[in-house]
Amino acid sequence: MQKILFFSSNKNKIKEIKNKLKNYNIKIITIKKNKEVSFPTESGLSFNENASIKSNFGFKIYKIPCFADDSGICISALKNMPGIASKKFLKSFKTESEGLQYILDITKKKMDFDAYFYSSIAFTINNTKTIFFNGIVKGLISQKPLGLGGFGYDPIFIPRGKKNTFAEMTIEEKNNISHRSIAINKFINYLTKTASPL
Ligand code: ITT
To answer: Ligand 1: distance of its center to the CA of 109 in Å?
Structure first.
């Protein structure tokens, strides 16, 4: 069985990715955020750069093929911010719900509800080779936060063509359409259909 490391400290991402890969002959190894594992600074200027900083770092420590996700939400009323700074943006408020409310207020004020989630998966196969798989899901910022599932911006994001926010969906429903699942589908396709280097 192929053994691959998913380098992430985000337990919700890990849950989604494990659920997505459960029917494949691929063993996903994950790390726990503890004192023994340090995390690299995400100093890149793009989702791809930050994803590869994480996948290269994981590869160097564990010495097995390693993938990582860098993702975020781009909101039209915020000039496509927070993007790669999505995690930092929510953390800059006292609570996550205050951060979400700030977005709801701005989108209503500007009457511009367009937004999209983006995911870059970087897969480091060896010291010299890292490849990328990307996913995007377009949608709208909701009128109010709805749902208890998911994480981060899920309670205020309604994917195009749907009535519910990501946070109102089951993990399987979100995994059928999300930015991360689109990128992961391409990754699975690479691992299973092409001459996999593993
Ligand atoms: P890693 O350890 O994998 O880096 P992280 O949470 O730090 O975990 P990122 O640096 O990629 O990950 O930041 C992504 C942020 O974007 C995340 O913390 C959320 O705030 C937001 N985000 C990304 N995907 C999301 C999703 O599917 N639903 C809701 N929010 C999401």
So the answer is: 26
How many CB atoms within 10 Å of residue 107? 22
Question: What are the residue ranges spanned by the domains of the chain?
Answer: 2-193
Q: By the 8 A CB rule, do 106 and 144 touch?
A: no
CATH class of 2-193: alpha beta
What spacing in Å lies between the alpha carbon of 167 and ligand 1's midpoint?
14
d(CA 103, CA 107): 6
Query: Closest ligand 1 atom to the C-alpha of 70?
Result: 11
DSSP letters of 54-86?
Answer: HHHHHHHHH-S-EEEEEEEEEEGGGTTEEGGGH
**Interatomic CA distance for residues 120 and 128, integer angstroms:** 19
Which atom of ligand 1 approaches the CA of 9 most closely?
2
Distance 54 CA to ligand 1 centre (A): 13
Active-site residue, 112 included: no
pTM of the model: 0.95
Residue 10 CB neighbour total at 10 angstroms: 15
User: Which tens digits make up the pLDDT trace of 145-185?
Assistant: 999 999 999 999 999 999 999 999 999 999 999 999 999 99
